[in-house]
Amino acid sequence: MKPLFSSKAQLTLVFVICAAFFISFATNGNGGNSALADQAVGLIKPKKEGGKKPKIVDTDSGDARVFVYDPDKDDKVKIDIADNAVITLNGEPANVTDLKADDVVDYTQDLSGRIVTLSATRAINGIVLSVRPDKLVITSDYVDRKTLDILPTTKLTLESKDVNIDQIHPGDHVSIVSSKANGAIAVKVSAANMLLDFWHNFQKNLFKPLLLFFYLGFCITLLKVPFEFPHAIYQGLTVYLLLAIGWHGGEELAILSGAALSQAAMYMLVGFCTNLIIGFCAYFILRSFIPKMRKIDAATVAAYYGSDSAGTFVTALGVLQVAAIKYAAYMPVMLAIMEIPGCLVGLYLASRMRRRGMDKAGNMPDEPNYNKQRSTSSGVHILQSGVYRAPSQSQSSQSHSAQNQQRSASQEMSGDARAAMRKQSQSIICAPGTESSGIQVVAAKRSQSQSLLGPPPTADDVEAASKPASQARNAAGSPTAGPPVPVVDTAPKQGLMISPMIIREIFLNPGIFLLLGGILIGFLSRLQGSNITAPDDQLFVSLFQGMLCLFLLEMGMTASRRLKDLKTAGPRFIVFGLVMPNIFALFGIGMTSVFSHVIGQPLQLGTYLLFAVLCAAASYIAVPAIQRLAIPEASPTLPLAASLGLTFTYNVTVGIPLYLAIAETVIKNFPVVGA
């Protein structure tokens, strides 16, 4: 009987998850019982001393009643208000119409259950941007700001101790009870601490349904549970998530001003250049850090990291929605834009290596197992789904001779044989004279249709795509000694790096097309008014979190399967997959901060996070499809093991809260001047 956990890495992962569960529950427990409520003659005071206070859920000023969430009953209760009730808000006289949801209340009722006294407290939570002797400037999203007066009677507390105004610093978290005239009555301060912020975000996100479903999928594979996620449901989820992201982004774009759209265009250019730089940097880091790795494999891995991950992006969106953190409306468009640079990096590096003598197996002249006779630098005609090198004159004459022999043989074939050959030509494209360049186009197309947003091609697809040409021909029913397989020429003209097929795959792959289509539909629909989009918002907005949970269940299963591919990669490659996302995310946060200072406009915290995620994530959708078409010499499993097994898993568990803490620290310490 095989053990449940086949490696120390899997055991360590399970131990870390269990330890995180224990620590989180140990530090977040409520602990202790509240005292019983006090009662007065003719009055009932429902609040428990020491317990959580009730909060207003809604009000009905027409009938003088409030809807209060009572933590004692863990339910919403409806309470009428007496005609002569005394109502105060932050210590000042108020009416029912002044009350709002989330106001903390302390009230008493008469024997008939009506409220006779109600004291409401409304706190403004935010982060200190600047401090003056008589004023505090705070923000909740780093864009909108509020100035509050510090009065002689203002009570200032830091960690439950009375402090002076000079002990409050920019970046500190504050909860302020203010008067109607914007005067601060009480200010509770929590000192800024990046490590504490990260730990708080990590704990808060660790047990949200999003990640719990990811853990569940991860454990399904680790524990070898005989379960396969239904493919039809998975297909529906990928289509839904892409359209939902596009729909919501399009709605938000429709209400942006012209200046905001101009800012979005500039930021997209910054995003494109940032991922282009990341792609090239990843290649040079791999070459320096792992010199034994083949150059073509390093180029392909760099292409993956120069692109982005739709799965990581939607997970970050889910975290921001749960935490009510704002982000720029154009970020879904950024997802499509920043997916392209990695593809271009991989294509450029592969083309450069072919010009410098790479053989058909992907080996360079200074690498082991290099075969000079099979070098592509001499102009060998390669038709690996669109990559082309013009043949020399002698090779061209040999090619024409072979074509004449093939034409003669085809004329002697029966109708059935010609039909079989046509069928075969539609399923296999291979380079003449090579044993390592066979690609099954049917498998490639099938994997692309299954990879709009989620898992990459299956192991069977990868194996089929990497079979030698001779095996591919035999698998298709054509014996080696049988009629030659016709070659379909889809290559570009001489001197071009990519073919029209590659261009189409980059810009019109199903994932990007559905995303951009959703953005366009949401944009045009919202221009007609909110009443047009409101019915569809119930599907594309309200159900987003639940659908994302199911998607992460599948992603957990897929990421866990990819871990086994790292056994032959070596420890340095594993370190690269876990460390580099942090460096790339920090680079992205820095670029966003510079952009914000250049335009003189502050950007939301959520925008910083999403841009960092787009820089830190590695593709497992668009780039694998491009690799199958244009870089078949590279390993198909090595980059996927890094992007899915390591980087995706790290980003959704540790990376997102860490990047959030780093972004917040950068915004606090480098505020936009004059904003």
Mind explaining what this structure looks like?
The protein is about 50% helix and about 15% strand. By secondary structure, the protein is α+β, with helices and mostly antiparallel strands. The strands form 3 sheets. Strands 1, 2, 3, 4, 5, 6, 7 and 8 form an 8-stranded mixed β-sheet that branches. A hairpin with a 2-residue loop joins strand 9 (about 125-130) and strand 10. Helix 6 (about 295-305) crosses helix 22 (about 640-670). It is elongated.
Features:
8-stranded mixed β-sheet, alpha+beta, elongated, 5-stranded mixed beta barrel
Question: Approximately what portion of the residues adopt beta-strand conformation?
Answer: 5-15%
Helix-strand category: alpha+beta
Q: Give the uncertain stretches in residue-range form.
A: 24-45, 378-451, 456-495
**Biggest β-sheet strands, sense, barrel:** 8 strands, mixed
Count of helical segments?
A: 22
Q: Evaluate the radius of gyration.
A: 31 Å
What is the average per-residue confidence, as pLDDT, rounded to a whole number? Answer: 75
- The strand count comes to 16
Oligomer: single chain
Form type: elongated
Distance between the termini: 65 Å
The proportion of residues forming helix, as a percent range, comes to 40-55%
Sequence-ordered SSE layout with sheet pairings:
Elements: H1 8-28, E1 39-40, E2 43-44, E3 55-60, E4 65-70, E5 75-89, E6 92-93, E7 104-110, E8 115-121, E9 123-132, E10 135-139, E11 145-158, E12 161-162, E13 173-178, E14 183-190, H2 194-206, H3 209-222, H4 231-254, H5 258-289, H6 295-305, H7 310-323, H8 331-337, H9 340-355, H10 393-412, H11 415-427, E15 428-429, E16 439-440, H12 441-449, H13 459-465, H14 469-475, H15 500-507, H16 510-527, H17 530-540, H18 544-562, H19 571-599, H20 605-616, H21 622-630, H22 638-669
